[in-house]
Predict the 3D structure of the following.
Amino acid sequence: MDQIQLTIDGVPVKGRKGQTILEIARDNKVDIPTLCYHPRISKTGACRLCLVRVNDAALKTSCTEPATEGMKVVTDDEEITNLRRGLLEMLLAEGCHNCLYCEANGDCKLQKLCHRYNVPEPSGEFPRHERVVDTVSSKGLRRNENRCILCGRCVKACSEIQMLGVWNFTGRGSNANLTSDMYDRIGDSSCVMCGTCVQLCPTGALSFQTVLGRGQAWELKKESSICIYCGVGCKIDFYTNKEGLLVKALGNEDGPNEGHLCVKGRFGFDFVQSDKRLTKPLVKKNGKFEETSWDEALDLVSSRFSDIRKKSGPDSIMAFSSAKCTNEENYLMQKFMRAVIGTNNVDHCARL
Amino acid sequence: MNIETIRKTIEKHGNGREHLMLILRDLETRSGKNLLDVKTLKTVAEEMNLPESFIAGFVGFYTMFKTKPRAKFVIRVCKSGPCHVMGSTTVFDAIQKQLGIGIGEGTKDGMFFLEKCECLGVCSVAPAMMVNYDLHGNLTPKKIAAILNSYKKKKPSLSEDCGKEVEGRACVVEGTKQVKRLLENVGVVDPLKVDSYIGKGGYEALKKTLSMGPGEIIEIVKDSGLRGRGGAGFPAGMKWSFVGKGPMQKYVICNADEGEPGTFKDRILMEENPHLLIEGMAICGYAIDASLGYIYIRGEYRRSIERLQAAINQARKKGILGQNIFGSKFNFDILIKEGGGAYVCGEETSLINSMEGKRGYPRFKPPFPGGAGFNMLPSNVNNVETLMSVPMIIEKGADWYKSVGPSNCSGTKLYCLSGKLNRTGLVELPMGATLKEIINVHGKGIPRGKKFKFAQVGGSAGGILGKDLLNLPLDIDQPIKQGVTLGSGVVLVCDEDTCAVDFLLQILSFFEHESCGQCVPCRVGTSHLHALARKFAERRASESDIDAMVEKAALMKKASLCALGQSPIMPITTMLKYFRKEFAEHCNPKHKCPQCDRSLLRYYTGMTH
Amino acid sequence: MTNSIREIPVSEAFLIIGSNTTENHPVIGSMIKKEVITRGKKLVVIDPRRIEMAKYADVFLQIKPGTNIAILNGLAHVAIKENLYAGDYVASRCEGFDEFKKVVEKYTPEFVADICGIDDPSLIVKAARILAGAKPMALYYCMGVTQFKSGVNGVKSCANLQMLLGNIGVAGGGVNPLRGQNNVQGACDMGALNAVYPAYQPVGNEEMRDKFKAAWKPAFDLSMKPGLTIVESLNGAIAGDVKALYVFGENPVMSDPNQHHVIEALEKLDFVVVQDIVMSETAQYADVVLPGAAFLEKEGTVSNTERRVQLMHRVVDFPGEAKDDWWIITQIANRMGASWEYTCAKDIFEEVRTVTPSYAGITYDRLEKELIQWPCPNEQHPGTQFLHKDKFSRGLGLMTAIEYTPPAEEVDPEYPVILTTGRILEHFHTGTMSRNSRVLHETVSEGFVELNQNDASNYNVEDGDLVAVSTRRGSVRLKAKVTARPKPNVAFIPFHFVEAAANKLTIDALDPTCKIPEFKVCACKIEKVHM
């Protein structure tokens, strides 16, 4: 058996050989803070927040340390708390984190952890590097690297999930920063706007153009659906604001897409709320469409279909069903044609 | 640059990511302006089928590369410990006077561009500078003028054209009582002739090795008590025994990225006796079942690179490298990888990433390189000095090797003497020599009758030793008990004129410059430590900043991913142990400190870097 | 797909043919890229354009549009000749091998290279060896195989190769069509096709007729005569046989191969109802337009390309008086004498389960927590990850001997360039959705024609120049995008843009079996427009 047993904070837990301490802790609902870790990408071990004490001695980053049989893990003690606070203090001092103006306000991992560890406001005495702010070059993505904590999740999102490698770190040490392609603006780069980097960004360093001014993170409601575009069937969590307006789309990790999306799934949803939408039944009178009531429209359709059926036979009526509609609707349409009209004249654009 | 040149260069080195360093170095040299322009880099990305950002990230990591135009010749002046103590500010003064350029500036005629840099590995002839890839030491204003003039007629190249004073054999201390094992043949064999090495009994140990079993070899190395000479002191035989077993490819990797400021031992060994390294690596390869070895040499060591390459070529011709060595079933070959100016690449996992053509980020451990190293395959990484100690152990036996040095750190150690001594250079002594012996006997005392103030032992990552530790045996274990470390064997002696604040500032600016930036404590911590030290130098600190430095460094020690971030605590606490008062004095805005003033003027203008 | 998306990591090699995967199925594209780039899996790409995937391919075969069957036969030829095929598998699980072998015998690499316009025939050999040497190997294809008058044969050729190499019925293998629309699989499963009931039960079968009559209780006998396909019905309209058309969520004016023809048909019809979310190009020709619901306003299920049935939830409210589409259809049905009593999508799905054996075990409750791929015959069944395990659905896998046939229209001196069409990353189909999404529209706001550099210089065209692309059927003007992507003498136009509608140009030649139009190849000419 490759099962192992260890204790986390005094509680015996089980895991599998080869799992890290963090993975076993998460499986057992033990909360260890992380910033650079994300289950969809390879381990980084860079933020150091997930340090835990192993066997009463060494501090190890739980995201990289393999768990072993009989291991004793302590996820928090005074020293660990102080280290985490110190690290968070460093991160705050390194960037320019003003939640008031931040797209990620309320949805920011750094913000949450700074609250949790009661991190004092940075003193401002240390020099910091102004980094790139580019909120205009891309139609989909905004970049404010002064909020970047260099966790590398965007870099790995692009090179390990989207497999494009638009992002990478350049520079070194305190001068390290992001580059897209060869120091290009993101809008001028080879970015295909899949948005996975934004979805994985733990702060507001990367954000969607569609989010700003459309409600605070905590006001948004989330509901899952399936992407309307190609046949992959990506599962998407759609977020709406108090006014019921669509704000953003995040890939759902339980779908066939495993959290990933393309530019269409990510940004191609606002046609739903476009002002071009039809809101009333229309009937053409004298070559012009006029609004009408449902009753009138439905009566007209049913009576015309009935007349034509009677006059020219059921096979004189044709229906185009739709590969964009649900199984239920398609089922009903073919049932309508077969069982109500009495013809097999139903088809859809499977071939197009 | 035209696409044909780029294609040819890629083809020459191999179209693979692991060859990126050489390809880019070659292209930069060919540019004639020490420039890798964005267009060229984009073409390289296209031709190598790599994301542009990988190339951008790579170039941005290694300080030797620049994407902005520089000049025909780049002058890099070292400001690390030994050079700093020996007056690198005067070098900048002289260059400013002659060429009218400061750091980050170029002459109008496009001839020269000035940069500061960290240790060049010629510390016994400090202060030093590098012009393109040529090293020059013992610099004086007059000498600088002559050197710069000589470049007006030269073409940029990658070959050795260094000052005589930096030649390996010139950097060995002669005439004192030493136990010369590694240095035995330095200055004796002709490094360019394999027969000269063979004539001195070279490759006999390898022959002997091939008549034994790999396990036996590891046992002998274990028995010899040989410990790693790169700084960490891990038992070499044990490390070898940890290398993964099985049918997969395994590698011997020689860490020749000698970057610890004040260290120049490996350079001398490689320049003067390259075959000894080849032999040591081959023996290691046999022991761990590796058929391929890599030597990762810092890019600044052109002469070492050229001589090693020549030695490898000769060894291949002689059948010493290649298939069925000496008629055995053992196959082994060695390839050279170059560094690009990154101290952190001396850390073995950073080194491996760099070998793979990536940014030199250290990897978290486990997995250790013995299990998953280069290309995620089992790899054994040893320092040059360690590997070069192996042939003599095989040849003469573990007992012979253990006959000098303390029982737990046997053998000899190369100590790199620099700073305020009458005689600087490399000495080989039984492990555990004292500072007193090193200074008085081998260094012939401190010049001009000045008083000893402190010695920095182990380099920037090492500690400060005051008068109380003059009799401390400098082996691997004793210094640790005193809160210091022998490290790679740096002994940098400072006299009473050295300002403790100025010296620490130099160390801490070094760490900020060299931090890779991957993990938070080191990336931010080194920057904050540098800023704090600067406050003292600028005399605007308060005494609480002393504790702030210690606290930050303590956090870094506990939380950093690799040894670099864990290091600053040692120089800080050991320096404060002796000179806390000087730091307190620097809190007074009216305190006079010409040394700090000069450094601030010359190196630390504007933002860091 | 015979197999599943999550099997991509299991595949040792991939053959991508007629699919610009990274643009049209980007999420799957990235997954395949990951295997190839980071895990060294083998990749062979066959496409007329040097698409992104070609960059990562071990072998890229840049073929002339319309020559898929030749290249697939060529690969099979090499596998048979070099005895690299799965002999045991073919012998025990397939039939028709001998005839197949006989036909592919003449498809030597040289012969195929000549048909496909490949300079180096040895590439075909290399590709065949790679594909035969890695097990399991997965074949992915898309409209670049199907949208030809020989589309059905193209698909059969794909199946032939995978049977020959023993890759059907194994995890990580398979013949995997990438479905172009989010529920094209489901629409077919549900019987929105002229000749089959739900779950592909033929309308011409008495047993089926009786089964559905019992389930639906219509006032008359169900017709056993296969109905019309879309294209046939348009012909029927022009001929006067078809009088009324109910268009539900489709936009044939933009999506059908011959725009003039569609418009003519629509104008001829007595009565046209369009049920859609916007006033589409087709709706302009309607007598009644009914405002339906957009996907985020709906509850219901959709079935993706790997037969995975997934639930959609209502995210936003209907605009104005727009209604659920099932409600609208129900209302019309009931006004015509039916007495349907559905109150929600779930009610309908429960009925679907009773008549659709492959969906019988699927429930809304299960879908909330489980990953289910049909067939799923009962509620205890976990669903089916890949098809044809141990045994083909029809028993023995049928290898069909197929000869290459040239496309309907070949180039000639007047129309010397091959025109092919397709999608681009940022847009979808006729653009009714993507062009009404701000970010997508702003990112790519107009159509273009992709030209090879050599061709462009022949026509004296530079990147960004306005050109006229004309065929025997029509002409459009658009900007030239000069790239290294298309094969020389091939032009590519994305079909999303109404102002430069590709279907003014394309030919309406159809596959004789499934009536798919030959969108992917016709002859055109390119002329620079002088302003």
About this structure: Chain B has 25 helices and 13 strands.
